[in-house]
Amino acid sequence: MALSNMLISTTLIIIAFAGGLALFSKAGDAPGLNNDQLTDCPSKPNCVCSENDRSLEHYIAPMPLLPEQQQQAMPAVKASIIALGGQIQDEQPHYLASTFSSKFLGFIDDLEIRIDTEQNQIHLRSSSRIGYSDFGVNRKRAASLKSTIQHHLDTMTGKPE
């Protein structure tokens, strides 16, 4: 009985601690742009960025954008973020910041997009606000978002699927 009570107490402490961290993750904003580019990832493995090619651990490829898709790029990005359950926090002509909340305890992750009309690319940065590892969630989210954006772009421009 004492071991059972100790196990229950330890479990409750862990859940309370994780819940506190989840509340803490709700504070703050996305890092934003740094010299007109997405901010580099920190050293922790819970971030991916297409403008951070100095670290293979954090690098993801930018999404190519056809010149004729530039007008539809931001509407496609917004529709894709909403379709995947994100909340838009900040929108500028070529930059968008959004948040995603984890299903368990509601940890907040930032997802940022920068549309590079000169290089015809969509850059992405997806990062956890707190913690160390994310078990690949941000990399998977970025890949899913790129696929969803492409689907929306193809639909908007009448390109066959």
Provide the fold topology.
Blueprint lengths: L1 H24 L7 E2 L2 E2 L8 E3 L13 E2 L5 H14 L3 E6 L2 E7 L6 E9 L4 E8 L8 H20 L5
Antiparallel strand pairs: 1-2, 3-8, 4-8, 5-6, 6-7, 7-8
Helix pairs in contact: 2-3
Notes on the structure:
By secondary structure, the chain is α+β, with helices and mostly antiparallel strands. The chain has one domain: Kinase associated domain 1, KA1 (TATA-Binding Protein, 2-Layer Sandwich). It has helices spanning 2-25, 70-83, 137-156, and strands spanning 33-34, 37-38, 47-49, 63-64, 87-92, 95-101, 108-116, 121-128. Strands 3, 4, 5, 6, 7 and 8 form a six-stranded antiparallel beta sheet that branches. α2 (70-83) crosses α3. The protein is elongated and about 70 Å long.
Query: DSSP helix count?
Result: 3
Shape: elongated
N to C succession of SSEs = HEEEEHEEEEH
Question: In total, how many domains does the architecture comprise?
Answer: 1
CATH class category label: Alpha Beta
CA(first)-CA(last) distance? 61 Å
Major sheet characteristics: 6 strands, antiparallel
Determine the strand fraction and express it as a percent band.
Answer: 15-25%
Helix content: 25-40%
Radius of gyration: 18 Å
What is the name of the CATH topology?
TATA-Binding Protein
- The CATH H-level superfamily is Kinase associated domain 1, KA1
Unreliable stretches, pLDDT < 50, 5 or more residues?
Answer: 18-26
**Alpha-beta classification:** alpha+beta
Mean of pLDDT: 85
